[in-house]
Amino acid sequence: MDVRRRRRNSNRLEGYDYSQAGCYFVTVCVQDRANRFGEIVNEQMRLNDVGRIVAESWEWLERRYDNVGLDVWVIMPNHFHGILIIRGTRRGGSRTAPTKSLGRLIGAFKTVSTKRINRRKGTPGIKLWQRSFYDHVIRDDEDLNNIREYIQNNPLKWALDEYNPANQMGL
Questions:
Q1: What is the mean pLDDT of residues 64-70?
Q2: Are 75 and 38 in contact (CB under 8 A)?
Q3: DSSP-derived secondary structure for 93-145
Q4: What's the pLDDT score for residue 7?
Q5: Sign of the dihedral defined by the CA atoms of residues 62, 68, 73, 79, in that order
Q6: Helix, strand, coil share (%) of the chain residues, nearest 5
Q7: Is 169 part of a structural domain of the chain?
Q8: Band of pLDDT at residue 168, cut at 50, 70 and 90
Q9: What is the pLDDT of residue 66?
Q10: Domain membership flag for residue 5
Q11: Tell me, what CATH number does 74's domain have?
Q12: Longest C-alpha distance within the chain, in Å?
């Protein structure tokens, strides 16, 4: 089969409506897992200018879409973890407008952050993010609290993190 025509397997729950109200844990990785957003120093993330743009772009989602809330999130050197809350339908003038799906919201975040970074660096068209993202539908308070703890502790565990290039085979 031609590599360009290979079908990508979806990591989404089959039949699940990702525009419905709920809490979603997402992980988005930098293209080729290159460290672009800063570094871990004394188990704390220190954002560079690119990392700060990513933070501003994530916060933009909540300002842009009145049905979106943000919970705990962290930017790591080469990936991002966050909890995004979709509150249901939003108001659109005199009638109710449908919500954006999780995929469209993450797509907006990736597009906005990439365009802002490329504009700042004078590198139009350079790809920042990997094509897809990981998601997990948060099902209950225990799940939510475990994920919050994982996100908050992520910088502390960078030395062991699977996304840390130092932990990749051959390094």
A1: 95
A2: yes
A3: TTEEEPPPPHHHHHHHHHHHHHHHHHHHHT-TT---B-S--EEEEE-SHHHHH
A4: 45
A5: negative
A6: 35, 25, 35
A7: no
A8: confident
A9: 92
A10: no
A11: 3.30.70.1290
A12: 59
Measured in residues, the chain has a length of: 171
Residue 3 lies in a domain: no
| Angle value at C-alpha 27, between 79 and 153, nearest 5 degrees | 75
Q: Domain count for the chain, please give it.
A: 1
Contacts of 30 (CB under 8 A, 6+ apart): 36, 37, 78, 79, 128, 129, 130
Residue of higher predicted confidence among 77 and 89 = 77
For residue 94, the model assigns a pLDDT of 42
Give the Cα-Cα-Cα angle 164, 166, 171 (nearest 5 degrees).
Answer: 140
Q: What is the DSSP string of 147-168?
A: HHHHHHHTGGGGGG-TT-GGGS
Residue 7 lies in a domain: no
Condensed to tens digits (0 to 9), the pLDDT of residues 94-103 reads 445 557 899 9
CA distance 149 to 130: 25
Can you give the pLDDT at residue 171? Answer: 46
Domain that holds residue 62: 17-155
- Mean pLDDT, the chain, rounded, equals 87
Packed helices 102-121 and 49-64: angle between N→C axes, nearest 10 degrees? 140
What are the structure tokens assigned to 5, written together? 């025509």
- Provide mean pLDDT across the span 121-137: 94
